[in-house]
Amino acid sequence: MPNRDCADVTPVRHSLCLVRPCRQAKRERRSVIMVLALWKRFSDWLNSDDVAANAMDANTLRLEFQDRYHHFKLLLASNNRALELMTELEKALEGHTPFSMKFVRSRTTRIYTRVYQMVTHLEHLAPGRYKALAPTLESLHKKLESLINPPLETDLSETFIIHFSALDRRHSDQAGMKMAGLADAANHLNIRIPDGFVITAHACRFFLAHQDLKAEIHRRMQRAEEGGDGAHQFYTLSADIRGLIEKAPLPAELGAAILGGYQALTRRYGGTPPNVAVRSSALNEDQEGISFAGIYDSALNVSEDQLIRTYKQILATAYSPSVLVYRLNRGLADFDTEMCVGVMEMIDAVSGGVMYSVNPMEIRDTAVTINSVWGLPKAVVDGTVETDLFRVSRTPHLAISHRVIGRKDQKYICGPDEGVRRMDETGSERFSPSLTDDQVLALAKMAIRIEDYFGAPQDIEWAIDKKGDIVLLQCRPLQIVPSRDTTSIEANTGLPPAFYHGGTTASPGVAAGPVRRVLKDADALRFPKGAILVTDRALARWAALLPPAVAIVSEKGSLTGHLANVAREFKTPALFGATGAVEKLTDGMMITVDADTGRIYEGVVDTLLEMDHRFEDHFLMKGTPVFSVLERAAALITPLTLTHPDSPVFKAENCKTLHDITRFCHEKSVHEMFRFGKTHRFPERSSKQLHAEIPMQWWVLNLDDGFREDVVDDSFVDISNIISVPMLALWRGITAFPWEGPPPVDGKGFMSVMFQATQNKALVPTVKSSMANRNYFMISKNYCSLQSRLGFHFAITEALVSHRSTENYISFQFKGGAADFDRRLKRVVFIKEILEHYGFRTEVATDSLRARLEQHRAQTMIAKLKILGFLTIHTRQLDMIMVNSKLVEHYRSQLMERIETLLAEPAVNTTEKKLHVDTYQP
Question: At what angle do helices 213-225 and 231-247 cross, to 10 degrees?
Fold first, then answer.
């Protein structure tokens, strides 16, 4: 049969020799095939390992990037919250609204925590690269901690008691200003005061340090600060701490010193143990503008047996509800509350009262005002009864210029053993003057002497003993609150008829609100903010209601009472002596109180409210201890010294404040995210330059799923390949209208920017320039962070937009410009007004703007992002024309018109259309 391998060979003789090589070829061919098969198996095995390794490496890179992206997002969140908290501090530094140490502690602690988180997340992004941040942050933390939680100290070098004869104003840090001022006046003016001594601030510290009582109080204060706000909190905290103090044992050596001082007083008293008055004299009491008038307690006619218990009760009043509220609204720190206590002989007064050396509401009125009653002066300072009123003019000589004898139905006297009794039957004293003319003139003369000695108007409490001698009980600076000119009000015939007319101006001003009657303590717990307090007695404890109350109307009380004094400090209008007010004014009734003229109107009288100027240029918190703590803390937090990331000083070791660290971490986090794409071979997630028709460099980092298709080999990405919802919305705003270049600049505008070269037209569409700045998008499908740097202007926009409206947010920050501060500020306000028109919440701090929008539907968020993209491009260099009102209005109209056009257009891309369930409603 024919040979299939050698078909052309037919002779038989050649068959053997020719068959052998054919068979050999087959064998060789089979060998080659076998070798190739083995090589393929080996190659497949080898290649399979490489592929697995490559897949594993890619997966590792993906996981690493996702981890970095996670830390990056957390860093951005901490950054936003830190900046918001810093804005709250800057707002508080304006001094217009009250805040407590709770505010200072909580904001400081929260800011530090957020900055600490930023440093931690940056360390994950760049391990070991910014080591200098940690020691700087720790140093700032220690400084802040020493401010907001100062160490508790006990100075054992001071004495427990000091006799009045050894006191003067120089000892106010040991005895408190009330006792130091009283003893100073007595020792230098030879005025009689009760014999006695003061239990010092050192004694208070010593007692509170005993058994760590102060630390426990501090712990409970901190715990209460974390528990919320409200009137009930003050009452609960007060009861808790006061009980703790009153039940605590007094150190034996302190008790011995107090009783030793009392026994020395007994010896001077002729051996008969006298009853005493135990009066507060806190270190922060009776200072100018911070009187604590009637806020701290005093105890009258106390026996020796009750002295130690009463001393602890007076210490405990440092935490009464009224004191806690007063400290909050006067900017006083809880750690400044150190209570000194005066122990003095009890004056069993025939009559007593309070006098002012000038009119507290008219500094030009130098007449001495005296309010007096029969018995103890308690009735005057508590505002519980009608008083006699005397006014004494100084020129040409002291003379009584005015007198009103009140109906004195009650009086307070010393009990036979101890304590104070109220007598409701005053007999012939009811309508008789409680002072003779000679006593009135003698009191006025004493008031003028004390005023001259201290160099300021004085608030003076006094008593007349059974011998007819005047005894000085207290003197302190008088709060002056000028009232407004009422001439125009009296002449204004357009006012409605007054519902009520009468009473005495205790604190000037006008206010409107609903009536809320407060006749007992339970009523105070339900007192609402913005109401008018109507009461039958001007009790000092109602001072706790002054922050929420807009005005006070009391049937009883006088100009010289404690509540009147505190009302003037708070600039709360107060009308006292308004007989019948409780019956005529019912709860919920809307009224307007004009304390200056003694009139009450039904409803809201806007004409009067417009004449009220109490709070013009009024900085409530400035000069207070808490404000001082905030200022020092803010100096370590809010200043920004690292402003330009391209500066050679923009380094971790140059951070001086928490704001510096925040700025540094935010900038470097952006840098590290872009750096990752360059240092890791990770084509699926590398930064790409955006194809753009505008002469700026736009770089896009796809953090997760922001591209329609992965871009592997190309270093550019086309906008059609972007599916990031927030980026596309921003880009639509950026590209909707071409930028027409810088606005025309006047001479002053040019001079303000000439050194900054803002006239460089590198960003004009027709001009190519190497000066164009890079602008960074970091995106996923639902997230975008745009850092835009256009010339001297910086804008950061961050957004999350998805179908879950509760998660949606936009954060926008704008700062910069090369013009002077006034122009930059006007430009920021210009942008702020536009954003507020479209529903953004905005805050302006110096020349920077922050805006935020959250929890809206996706289509609403898209529309808002278009506005931000548009403004980012079209408000640059407008700072140069901000002093030209006509140009400002021109650009405002132009921008608003174009924004409306932009918002009216239909969805322009597939991704946006999918999210546009409803038509956008601006």
Answer: 170
End-to-end Cα, the chain, rounded Å: 96
Q: Exposed, middle or buried, 450 (CB in 10 Å: 0-12/13-18/19+)?
A: buried
Under a CB-based contact definition with an 8 Å cutoff, are residues 881 and 888 in contact? yes
b/e for 54-88, b at 16 or more Cβ within 10 A? eeeeeeebeeebeebbebbbebbbbbbbbbbbbbb
Read off φ and ψ for residue 825, nearest 5 degrees: -65, -45
Counting every residue written for the chain, the total comes to: 922
d(Cα 147, Cα 106) in Å, to the nearest integer?
Answer: 13
Q: Specify whether the CB–CB gap between 119 and 137 falls below 8 A.
A: yes
CA distances from 458 to 1, 423, 633 (A): 143, 30, 35
Q: How far apart are CA 318 and CA 300, in angstroms?
A: 18
SS (H, E, C) 434-467: CCCHHHHHHHHHHHHHHHHHHCCCEEEEEEECCC
Separation in Å, CA 654 to CA 104, 129, 364: 26, 15, 55
Q: What pTM was computed for the model? A: 0.51
Question: Which residues are bridge partners to 799 per DSSP?
Answer: 784, 810
The interaxial angle of helices 658-679 and 15-92, nearest 10 deg, is 170
Residues 6+ apart with CB under 8 A from 338: 201, 204, 205, 282, 283
With both helix axes pointing from N to C terminus, report the angle between 725-735 and 858-874 in degrees, rounded to the nearest 10. Answer: 40
C-alpha 381 chain-centroid distance = 34
Nearest C-alpha neighbor of 369 from the set 404, 412, 407: 404
Q: So what's the pLDDT on residue 58?
A: 41
73's tokens? 């997002």
Range of weakest confidence among 219-233, 565-579, 699-713? 219-233
Supply 124's token pair: 């994950």
Report the sign of the C-alpha dihedral through residues 29, 35, 36, 41, in that order.
Answer: positive
Secondary structure of 135-192 as H, E, C letters = HHHHHHHHHHHHHHCCCCCCCCCCCCEEEHHHCCHHHHHHHHHHHHHHHHHHHHHCCC
Which of 889, 863, 866, 891 has the alpha carbon at shortest distance from 877?
A: 891
| Rounded mean pLDDT, 140-147 | 93
Provide DSSP, 477-538: EPPP-PPPP-HHHHH-TTSPPPSEE--EEEE--EEEEEEEE--SHHHHHTPPTTPEEEESS-
pLDDT digits (tens, 9 = 90+) for 246-273: 999 999 999 999 999 999 999 998 888 9
For 427: left if phi > 0, alpha if psi spans -120 to 50, otherwise beta; the answer is: left
Question: Mean pLDDT, to the nearest integer, of 674-683?
Answer: 49
- CA 442/CA 421 separation, integer angstroms: 28
Joined together, the tokens standing for residue 302 give 């106390």
Place of tokens 């602008």: 775
3-state secondary structure of 594: strand
Q: Three-state SS for 195? A: coil
Sign of the four-CA dihedral 824, 827, 831, 837: positive
848-854: strand order across its sheet: 716-717, 687-690, 697-702, 774-779, 783-790, 793-800, 809-816, 848-854, 841-845
Rounded CA separation 854/423 (Å):
64
Percent helix, strand, coil in the chain (nearest 5)?
45, 20, 35
CA distance 625 to 170: 20
Q: Which helix (H) or strand (E) holds 124?
A: helix 101-125
State the average pLDDT for the chain: 80
Residue 853 · residue 841 · CB < 8 Å: yes
Q: Which residues of 882-907 are buried (b: 16+ CB within 10 A; e: fewer)?
A: bbbeebbeebeeebeeebeebbeeeb
- Tell whether omega for the bond before 135 is within 30 degrees of 0, i.e. cis: no
Distance (Å, whole) CA 631 – CA 636: 9
Q: Count Cβ atoms below 10 Å from residue 820 Cβ, excluding itself.
A: 18
How far apart (Å, rounded) are the C-alpha atoms in residues 495 and 224? 47
